[in-house]
Task: inverse folding
């Protein structure tokens, strides 16, 4: 296993990482990258063991429903890159189970890769969304060859891929990029049915980075995002060679969707696990700021908080249903139920904006206009701010302002905007969840009940 410092040194491997248009030599020297870099390093130190055969227990596949359930709280405490590493390894293990009997030649490669990744204690990020915009790829129609990552040449040793993947969280902070097809492929699209693991420092890989980290703000005014941030990337593959042992699908169009479905399942499980915690956090902030504002007993405020509580409880129930109805692969690895996972993810994503609206309505305009923490340190301003921001009853102006800053940071600033988008888009947008629901819902039972109600049952 690696220590945090050894992890940081391992990233100085010649990778091409860019931030604000500059090629970055030392991520630890960039505030927008150093905070997440050190968070990942802290995760290494947390699980480090000097035993020669030690592996991180977090990246072991669950072997029972209870083990899957018990893993959730631990996953919620992980840094994002370790969490995504877990999702990546679980994705390929579930995919291997679904390829058994259909494309068995890839299963030994997948199993060997998973074991090697665990043994070498590497971090992996997922690359699935192609830079396709509104472009389509269909045989017989006008095609855009740059729409999808694809194989441009093959040899006895491996393949060469070209293209780009978007929306990759933490790509610069991992060791491997897990590349997968973004959708179902059809005959004639064999070059696009490619799944493989690409080292970040491979020649031809370029990674851009954006961040919601408050680069120039007072950390006290950004109580969450100043220490919890993660860069998002475009990963460019400019004729990148991938050896055969790292190729897990190549040309089998009928199996291209296996990886996307497996990844979506684990991403959505992680997403709803976070949404459960986030929903409770929003309830807590709403209740605290209502108390601080002196409006906690106002009927419309109480009703909004009630709705937020109901939403949070429904998400928790959906998460439990996804775990309680888990399935197992032929190897005995357990994974959550598709139907409950997707329905809960849809509920959490579609209602997030409503819950934030309730919170903002309860809190008021000071969410974006409250004085800064530095203002409270000004000896001239301090007594005025305490006088006018305090609401009495032991509620100081500084205490109330800190709540406003927390609400703004998490729901109404760069970090809040990131959540607004990623809660919908992570693991596939709302349409993806509707598709899975449509596929798995027991429509025959519903129709039979409708016929019975109408007196039309045979």
Result:
């Amino acid at each position: 296993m690696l220590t945090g410092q050894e992890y940081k040194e391992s990233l100085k491997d010649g990778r091409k990482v860019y931030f604000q248009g500059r090629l970055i030599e030392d991520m630890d020297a960039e505030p927008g990258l150093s905070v997440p870099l050190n968070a990942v390093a802290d995760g290494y130190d947390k699980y480090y063991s000097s035993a020669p055969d030690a592996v991180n227990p977090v990246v072991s596949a669950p072997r029972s429903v209870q083990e899957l359930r018990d893993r959730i709280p631990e996953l919620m405490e992980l840094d994002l890159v370790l969490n995504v590493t877990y999702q990546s390894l679980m994705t390929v293990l579930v995919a291997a189970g679904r390829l058994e009997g259909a494309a068995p030649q890839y299963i030994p490669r997948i199993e060997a890769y998973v074991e090697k990744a665990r043994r070498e204690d590497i971090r992996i990020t997922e690359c699935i969304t192609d830079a396709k915009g509104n472009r389509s790829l269909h045989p017989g129609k006008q095609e855009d060859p740059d729409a999808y990552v694809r194989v441009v040449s093959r040899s006895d040793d491996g393949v060469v891929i070209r293209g780009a993947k978007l929306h990759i969280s933490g790509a610069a902070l991992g060791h491997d990029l897990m590349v997968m097809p973004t959708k179902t492929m059809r005959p004639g699209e064999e070059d696009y049915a490619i799944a493989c693991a690409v080292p970040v420092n491979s020649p031809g890989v370029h990674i851009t980075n954006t961040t919601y980290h408050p680069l120039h703000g007072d950390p006290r005014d950004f109580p969450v995002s100043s220490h919890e941030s993660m860069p998002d990337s475009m990963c460019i593959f400019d004729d990148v060679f991938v050896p055969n042992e790292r190729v897990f699908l190549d040309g089998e169009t009928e199996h291209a969707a296996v990886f996307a479905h497996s990844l979506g399942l684990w991403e959505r499980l992680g997403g709803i696990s976070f949404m459960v915690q986030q929903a409770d956090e929003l309830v807590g902030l709403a209740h605290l700021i209502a108390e601080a504002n002196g409006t906690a007993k106002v009927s419309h405020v109480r009703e909004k908080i009630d709705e937020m509580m109901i939403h949070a409880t429904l998400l928790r129930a959906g998460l439990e249903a996804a775990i309680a109805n888990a399935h197992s692969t032929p190897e005995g690895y357990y994974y959550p139920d598709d139907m409950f996972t997707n329905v809960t993810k849809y509920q959490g994503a579609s209602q997030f904006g409503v819950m934030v609206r309730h919170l903002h309505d309860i809190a008021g305009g000071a969410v974006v206009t409250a004085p800064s923490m530095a203002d409270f340190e000004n000896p001239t301003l301090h007594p005025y701010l305490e006088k006018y921001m305090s609401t009495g009853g032991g509620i100081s102006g500084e205490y109330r302002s800190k709540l406003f800053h927390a609400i703004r940071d998490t729901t109404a600033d760069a970090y809040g905007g990131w959540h607004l988008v990623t809660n919908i888009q992570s693991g596939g947008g709302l349409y993806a969840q509707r598709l899975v629901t449509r596929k798995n819902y027991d429509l025959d039972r519903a129709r039979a009940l409708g016929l019975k109600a109408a007196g039309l049952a045979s």
